[in-house]
Amino acid sequence: MSSIFLSPPLEKINHQIADSAGVELYVFRLDLMHPQINGNKWFKLKYNLLEAQEKKYSTILTFGGAYSNHIFATAAAGKVFGLRTIGVIRGEETLPLNPTLNFAIEQGMELVYCDRTTYKKRHTNQLQEELKQRFGEVFIIPEGGGNLNGVRGCTEIMENLKYLDIDTICLACGTGTTLAGIALSLHSNQKIIGFPVLKGGEFLAPQITNLTQDYIQSGLPVPVHNPAHWQLLYNYHFGGYAKVNQELIKFCHTFQQEHNIPLDYVYTGKMFYGVMDLLKKGFFSPGKILLIHAGGLQGNSGIEEKLLKKI
Asked: In angstroms, rounded to a whole number, what is the distance separating the alpha carbons of residues 290 and 278?
C-alpha cells in the first residue's frame, strides 16, 4: 500500500532569524510524498484503510468541512485503492463547488451534506447507525482520521529521522492525532510543540492526553511507553479554523519566494508564522528544530477564491 509514496525530503532552512537565535531549522516535507494523498493525512489514513481492507469493507465513510484536506485525501485514496467513498460534509451545499469538493467528486466520492447541529453528533452511535442504515455496510473513519489507527500511523512519521538528533518538533494541530502519534515515537529528551489552528483550542490538551493513554493501553505497536514532553501554543490561530488575513498570506508568499517551500494557509502556514515569531522573541533555546510540513496545499485555492469574493 505504501509503495506509491515517495520518501519525504528533509530541507534545512537558512534564515537570519534562526541563525541569530542559535537554531538550526529543518522542514520535513510530507507535502511531497504524493500529489494528492500527502502530509499527515496519509499517516492517519493508512491503518484505517488497511483495517477496512482486512475486514472486507468496500466503502469508506468519513466527515469533514467544505475545505477539508482529509476529505480531499480520502477521496483520492479511495480512487487509488479501489474503495467507494462517502463524505459527510458540514453545512449546506454551495454552488459552484469549491476546488476541494469538486476534486472529491471527480475522484468518485459521494457527498452528503449535513446541517451543523446534526454534524456535531458525528461521533455518536446514533448518527453512525443512521448512516449505516442509509448506506449499508460502511467503514467509518472519524473526521481528520482522529482515532487510534490514525495515531498508529503518526507514530511512523519520525522513524527515518532518528539520525538527526532533533531537540524540538513543531507542527500545526487540528484534532491532536498527529501530535499524539509523534509524541509516542520520540526520545524522552525531545519535545514537541503543537500550534492549534482553531480558536479556543484548549480542548485539545485533554484530547491528546486521552489519545496517548488510550493508545498505550490498546495493545497496538508503540515505539515508547511514555510520550515525550509536549505543549500547545494557542496564539497563532488567526481568528479560528480556516480564518486568514493579509498578514498571514503575505508571510506565506514571502516564505515561498525566499525558500521555495509553499505553505498552506489553514495549517502549516500558521505554525511557520508562529515559529518565526517565537524565534524573534527568544522563545527557543539554541538547538535543532524540525517543522512538520503537513501538506494541505490544495486548500489554498479555495481560501483565495473566498477572499476574492469579499473584495
From this structure: 14
Task: Please tell me the distance from the alpha carbon of residue 79 to that of residue 137, in angstroms, as a whole number.
Answer: 19
pLDDT at 82: 96
Phi, psi of 68 (to 5 degrees): -65, 125
Backbone angles phi, psi at 271, to 5 degrees: -65, -45
* SS3 per residue for 21-88: CCEEEEEEEHHHCCCCCCCHHHHHHHHHHHHHHHCCCCEEEEEECCCCHHHHHHHHHHHHHCCEEEEE
pLDDT digits (tens, 9 = 90+) for 98-129: 999 999 999 999 999 999 999 999 999 999 99
Q: d(Cα 136, Cα 127) in Å, to the nearest integer?
A: 13
pLDDT value at residue 30: 97
Taking the CA atoms of 77, 39, 35 and 263 in sequence, report the sign of the dihedral they define.
Answer: positive
Per-residue pLDDT at 307 exceeds 70: no
C-alpha 128/C-alpha 271 separation (Å) is 33
Average pLDDT score over the chain = 94
C-alpha distance from residue 170 to each of 9, 46, 267 (Å)? 17, 22, 12
Distance CA 163, CA 129 (A): 46
Rounded Cα distance, 223 and 298, in Å: 32
Looking at the predicted structure, is the pLDDT value of residue 150 above 90? yes
Coil/strand/helix, residue 178 = helix
Q: Summarize the confidence of residues 240-254 as an average pLDDT.
A: 93
- Axis-axis angle for helices 246-259, 268-280 (nearest 10): 80
Residue reference for cell 502556514: 269
Helix, strand counts (H, E) of the chain: 12, 10
